[in-house]
Amino acid sequence: MPLQEAFVNPQQWLDEYEAKLADLKKKSEDLQENFTASSATVTSKDGSVTVTVGPNGGLQNLQLGRRAMEMSAAQLTGAILQTAALAQRQAAEKVLGVFQPLGEGTEAMAMVSDAIPSDEVDLDEADDEVEEPVEPPPPVRRPAPAAPTVRPPTRPRPAANDEDDDNQPW
User: Fold this and answer.
1) Which of 15, 21, 80, 119 has the smallest number of Cβ neighbours within 10 A?
2) Architecture of 7-132 per CATH?
3) Tens digits of per-residue pLDDT, 60-70?
4) Residues 6+ apart with CB under 8 A from 78
5) Domains of the chain: which residue ranges?
6) Are 71 and 112 in contact (CB under 8 A)?
7) 95 near 112, Cβ under 8 Å?
8) pLDDT tens, 71-114?
């Protein structure tokens, strides 16, 4: 390679650098804008549960349909957890899509994509596996604490008098 090609025109380098910075700034602004819109709402197949989660997977809203009142506690719990898991997965995939233009090919992108569970949840299949809760064990009965021992009040001793000590032989 000729020596002149090894040196880059400083103005060209600066222009390319500024273009990269402008592109990163635009991608960063898009990320911030779209991140807040990355919530997800999912309704269970039977319509008993609707869950909305934010971009971080945190629960934002939970609505129970009429069908929910017909379910046992264990079935309702299972439906809520399964629907929430689907909503969290959808929100995570949206966040991943928003983050991709800025983080593609980076360790941060790999970390975000690895955090999304790959196993699918089938609500119909999972409904069959819901078990009724087992009766909780009876509460532990602890004996009542022993009553505190109360000492009878002691009589105050008379003030020490040096003269009395001489009259008492003991």
Assistant:
1) 119
2) 2-Layer Sandwich (3.30)
3) 999 999 999 99
4) 126, 127, 129, 130
5) 7-132
6) no
7) yes
8) 999 999 999 999 999 999 998 888 888 878 777 788 877 877 77
